[in-house]
Every structure is written in C-alpha cells, then in structure tokens.
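pinned: reference chain
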Amino acid sequence: MLRVILELFRIITIIFVIGMIMGLIIHSIYAIFGITVENTTGGWIVGMAIFPLLYVLYKNRLQFSGFYKNGKQVKLSNRTTTILLCSSVLMLTVAPLFR
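pinned: its structure tokens
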C-alpha cells in the first residue's frame, strides 16, 4: 500500500515539475518567434498539449523506474505513441492562432 501512495506522489510530482519545465521551454520557443500565448485560449491549448507528452513519457519510460512494480506494466504501442505525440505537436502548432 505504501508503494502505491509513493508512486501516486511521484506521478503528481512528475506532472508538476516536468510539466512546468516543458511549459517554460515551449513559452521560451514562442518568445523567440515573438509569439505570446499567455492569458489567451492558446495558453490553455499549450497546457493541454503538455499532458499527452507527459503521459507518453511516463508510460514508455518512467513507470519502469518507480516504486510500484507490477508484471502488467507495458509500454504504449508505437501507433498510440505516434498519435499522442502528433496530436500534441498539432496543438502546439495551432495554439498561437487562438487569441
């Protein structure tokens, strides 16, 4: 039971820390091109695009190094990974259009 609680805390920490770092990097890239998405609908789209990226990162890499070990842990299929990554890139591409 303790391992499950520690893994949930780890997942929440990953979402906040790595999510904030990804958001900072994405906003910095937008700033290089002179695009601002803060306080717009595009900012929400950027936030929503980060979650599939985090999900793919966790399911394909980070779940195998955590506290909770289960024989049913498997990576995402290549097709699912591709669909999630492409949808995130698409959202990041169209986010500046929503102001």
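why pinned: The chain has a mean pLDDT of 91. Residues 30 and 36 are 6 Å apart (CA to CA).
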